Each structure stands twice: as structure tokens, then as C-alpha cells.
Amino acid sequence: MIEVEVRARVDSLDDVRKILDNMGAKLVKSSTQVDKVFELDKFLDSEHRVLEGGIIARIRQDDGKTKVQFKEISRTDGAGMELSSEVGDISLAVEFLEKLDFKECFTSRKKRDKYSYDGFIICLDDVELLGTFIEVEKMVDSSDLKEKTKEDCIRLLEKIAPSLEIEKRKYGDLMQDIINGETN
């Protein structure tokens, strides 16, 4: 599957929740996610940022379930391949990733409210150290659908909050800025 997403920083998640409620969006679930993020040296630039088209791995804990996920990083079109599999033992997952030469980079924690609206997933995220964000995303089966789906995601984001500016950097990029001592 290919995940197509757009993200923007928001000042108030409560204001966005009210808009979503007024639109008729349905709250699917609220959760706390803990992600251990792993990187491969061959996909990193000199500042340890993942190269466009590179792959990261993460171990995500969410509502008592643990998954190993592989994500293609795509900042330009907001669409990257994603593979995911549930695992029972975190330490075994870490050992497996290390055997593939992945190195743990950081751990992030976020509180997420996930909404469903007209075939889209809308996530309101409060990410530790990074702040508050809205993501609009949709999964597609074909690369041919990426561009149109991204445009649809942008239109929906503009409907929810017309004055927001899209954040092209991934959460991992923002975390790497903190690790590198940069501020933005």
C-alpha cells in the first residue's frame, strides 16, 4: 500500500476538533503511540537525515499492540510505500532490525486522535518535543493515484483550516533537527 499524507502545524487541537465535529467527521480512536525509529546508514545524508526515497523502520506500540513498520520517505509528493506486521516481542523485533543493519535513532511519543471523514483519515497529533499537528491521509493501491490523492488531501486540509501551511518535513526530520541542535 502507498500512504499519501499532508501535515500542518496547528496552534490549537481543540479548535480543529470543533471544526471536525461540525463537518461530521467521526472520531475513530484516541491513543498514545510510542515509536522507536531505526535508520540505515546508506539512506542518511551527512546530517543524519533520511534521503528522499530512503527507508526507515520503526517499532510502534499503540493500544497494547506492537508493529514493525517499514516506510519509504517521500517529502516531495507525500506518498511512500509502507509495510507493517504485528510482532509479539519488542526485543526480538529490535534484534531483527539490528541484524538488517538498522540502528536505533530516537524514540518519539505522541497522543493521537484519529478521525474518519469521506474516505480519509485525519489525525490530530500532540508530539512530544515537536508540538501539535494535523495530518490528512489516505492509502492507495497504485502509484498512478498518488498525485490526485495528494491534491484531495490538500483540499480537505484547506477545508478544515484554510490558513495552515503544509509542513513538508516528516516528524523524523523535525526530531533530527532537535538532535542536530537546530531550531525551526
Topology at a glance:
Elements: E1 2-9, H1 13-23, E2 26-39, E3 55-62, E4 65-72, E5 79-87, H2 90-99, E6 103-117, E7 120-127, E8 131-140, H3 146-160, H4 171-179
Antiparallel strand pairs: 1-5, 1-8, 2-3, 2-6, 3-4, 4-5, 6-7, 7-8
C-alpha-based Rg, rounded: 16 Å
CATH architecture: Beta Barrel
CATH class, anyone?
Mainly Beta
**Widest sheet: strand order?**
1-5-4-3-2-6-7-8
Average per-residue pLDDT, rounded, comes to 94
The poorly predicted ranges are none
Which structural class matches the secondary elements? Answer: alpha+beta
Shape: globular
SSE topology string: EHEEEEHEEEHH
Structural description of this entry:
The chain is of the alpha+beta class and 184 residues long. It has a single domain (2-179), classed as Hypothetical Protein Pfu-838710-001, CATH 2.40.320. The chain contains four helices and eight strands, in the order βαββββαβββαα. Strands 1-5-4-3-2-6-7-8 form an eight-stranded antiparallel beta barrel. β7 and β8 form a beta hairpin. It is globular and about 50 Å long. The two termini are 32 Å apart. The mean pLDDT is 94.
In a few lines, what is going on in this structure?
This protein has helices at 13-23, 90-99, 146-160, 171-179, and strands spanning 2-9, 26-39, 55-62, 65-72, 79-87, 103-117, 120-127, 131-140.
Relevant terms:
184 residues; Hypothetical Protein Pfu-838710-001; 8-stranded antiparallel beta barrel
